[in-house]
Amino acid sequence: MTWEGQRADWAHEVETPAFVLDTRAVDRALDAYERVRCDMGARVLYALKPLVHLDALARMRARLDGFAASSLNEARVAREVLGTAGGKTLSITTPCYRPQEMERLAELCDHVVLNSVGQYVRFATGLRDRGVSVGLRLNPGLPLVSDMRYDPCRPGSKLGVVLTEVGAAHERGDLDGLEGLHFHTSSDGLTYDGLLATVRSVRGGLDGLLRSGTVRWVNLGGGYHLPTDENRAALYDAVVVLRERYGAEVYLEPGAALVREAGYLVASVVDMFTSGGEMVAVLDTTVNHAPEVFEYQYRPDVLGHDSDHGHAVTMAGATCLSGDLFGEYRFAAPPAIGDCIVFPQMGAYTLAKAHWFNGVALPNLYTIGEDGRPRLRRRHTYEDYRARLDLKDYPNDADG
Ligand SMILES: Cc1ncc(COP(=O)(O)O)c(C=O)c1O
Hints:
About 30% of the residues lie in helices and about 20% in strands. The chain is of the alpha/beta class. β13 (about 310-315) and β14 (about 325-330) form a beta hairpin. The longest helix is centred in the middle third of the chain and has 19 residues, at about 195-210. It is globular. Bound molecules: pyridoxal-5'-phosphate.
């Protein structure tokens, strides 16, 4: 894909490095899920993990059925944003439920999805007694992700219970009071064919449990791109069969699809030179502001790049790590020191994973609203760095 025609005419207005959230893109993603909620009767939760950003969460609270958390801290944020008014659902799943946190989780969450039969036996009764609807995470055993590091269905997976074990535990009476089933097995799926295949596999393995009348809801997780006219038939079939055949409420908990397009990482070129004949541009951002660039070794898009352009430039990050590189890009003219470089589609799993390696500050946060202009939301300063290092009681003489 070329981003040649795409512009970010607001880029020169931000102080770099910057993470810019365009709320108009969040609204467009919410429109796509509005149709899923209306036409299919699915309930949609936003999974906070790719981006915890108040300006996104506030819009989602109004237009979705709730939030999905992956830790006590995420659950606390989600509850603060949702408030305590009824009608919205806060769900959590994690492999790490700590006994000392269960009471607080029970206060905060409507659904708690336990990750193993042992956890169910230890925690389900206490949660139910506090009014929580308790679910179990399944490992449907149908791999959809080629990179094993991200595959919840990998052999020996720590995420969820394999279907045969669920069936056996149900027969033993270990799952009494189970109200929900949950699975999340995809990552970046463009079509929902894998989801439909997974639903079929779960129905095949757990038809008896699903028919037993105790299961009130099934949560199909996230891991897919936005529903579109082209891909929605499989999603529709997956949702409707569970609703109509088993009378289950169906939940989706997308994360990245709701925020990916809304996020931009904006940097300035701080140095340009040739190294071994290659042009290098040093930026004031780093792959540590988008750690999956390094983890996956993928090359994010840059506005203005086109593979047919004549000037190849390696975009390098600000840190001492020699592999702190975004990749090679081609431009019509080589960038100059001071130019803005804009990485689009950076809303998911960037800021949420970003860190302060080398003391390079996290990006400043800007939000674009209806008027199309960026508004500063938060500047990341030396004081934030000091607080992180617990230097707050140390005399700060250096700043005079
Ligand atoms: C349990 C669960 N639900 C939802 C999601 C959201 O997935 P995505 O951001 O790919 O839509 C994840 C991502 O890891 C997850 O682990």
